Amino acid sequence: MTGAASFGDMIVWWVRIYNEFEVSGNSLERIQQYLVVEQEPTPKDGGAPPAYWPSSGELRVDNLSARYSPDGPKVLHNVSFHIKAGQRVGIVGRTGSGKSTLTLALLRCIYTEGAVWYDGMQTNTLNLDALRSNITIIPQVPELLSGTLRQNLDMFNQYDDATLNDALRAAGLFSLQRLQDENRLTLDSKIASAGGNLSVGQRQIIALARAIVRQSKLLILDEATSAIDYETDSIIQTSLRTELGSDVTVITVAHRLQTIMDSDKIMVLDAGRLIEFDSPKVLLQTENGLLRALVEESADKEALLAMAEGKV
Known about the structure:
Layout lengths: L1 H34 L23 E9 L6 E10 L4 E5 L6 H8 L4 E8 L2 E2 L5 H6 L1 E4 L8 E2 H5 L7 H11 L18 E2 L8 H15 L3 E5 L7 H14 L5 E5 L3 H4 L4 E6 L2 E6 L1 H5 L5 H8 L3 H9 L3
Parallel strand pairs: 3-10, 3-11, 6-9, 9-10
Antiparallel strand pairs: 1-2, 1-4, 4-5, 7-8, 11-12
Helix pairs in contact: 5-6
């Protein structure tokens, strides 16, 4: 009986050892998965653009299709358009129409087919670091680094305080706080990891200021003002028109129609296809047009129509 009891204890011990070994093996499997994970293309000697590039924000897209995996379905279908340097273009569409997917495709973050020319150079011939370092995109929920506000705006200490403060003013931060506020944000204010001590609206304003400091020729706002009230949004949009150069192209994925109704052109997407692309005034005159339908459904219909006509 003693031997049988000892044998039972030994079986339980072996089961526990086997279980610990199996759990440890999961870590080895995870390491193996990271070793064989698919990598983005490595930089090549012939993929570096000239030093003067980009000199303008001209963007031309020809039959652009995109998918999230090599064998997945297409989420963009033969999208073609031409944006001249300095134009402000709004992108609208219902949920799932492909607005954010288009911005990812321009940055080559997903699998794409077709051709994209940025300032005369085809982007699929460029190294990814060269392409993405010359395009500024502000996502809906921007991430910040732990440190000071100055470090988040100018990580490599390339600009003086006057330039950084001008960018913050242009982004609308100073319109949200007064000089006598004790907790107002300054260049020396501490930022927690991922901006945890700031509201989403404040993070978006700092991301906008960072974009103004970078002075990229192509600026993409992916619903970057969705957490900001309409009045502050108007201040930011006005600042973007005045602070950015005349050859800087701004593409805005709209959260509010008021944000893009005074754009030079509006792009309307539906189910991954480009349905309409023209000035707001022309699109609103189109019978059964998608933009016209969106405006008709809005509670601010009269204000939107006035903006499209250039009356405000």
